[in-house]
Amino acid sequence: MAAAATTKTGARPARAGRRRRLTAPAWIGAVPFFAYVAVFLLWPTGIVVVDALKNPNGAWAFSNFTELANPQVRGYFIGSFKLCLISSLSGAVLGAILAYAVASGDPDGIIRRLYISVSGVLAQFGGVTLAFAFLALIGPVGVLFHASWYFDFPWGIALIYAYFQIPLMVLVFLPAIDGLKVQWREASENLGASAWQYWRYVGAPLLAPAFFGAMLLLFAVALSAFATIQAWENQIPYVVPQQISTALSSEVGLSNVNEADLLALGMVIMVAIVMTAYALLQRRAARWLR
Amino acid sequence: MAAVTSLGETPLTAPAGRPRGMQAGRRRRLNIFRYTVFTVFGLFFLLPLLALARFSLEGATLGTWSVTAWKQIASYQNQNTGIPPLISAIEITLELAVITCAVMLVLLVPTMVWVRLRVRWLSRTVEFLCLLPLAIPAISLVVGLGEIYNRIQRISLSALMLFWVYVILALPYAYRALAAGLTAIDVTTLSEAARSLGASWFSVLVRVIVPNMRAAILNALILTAGVVLGEFTIAYLLLYTNLQVELYSISRNTPNAGVLFATSLAALLLTGVLLLIMSYAGRPRRGRG
Question: Are the beta carbons of B264 and A30 separated by less than 8 Å?
Answer without folding.
Answer: no
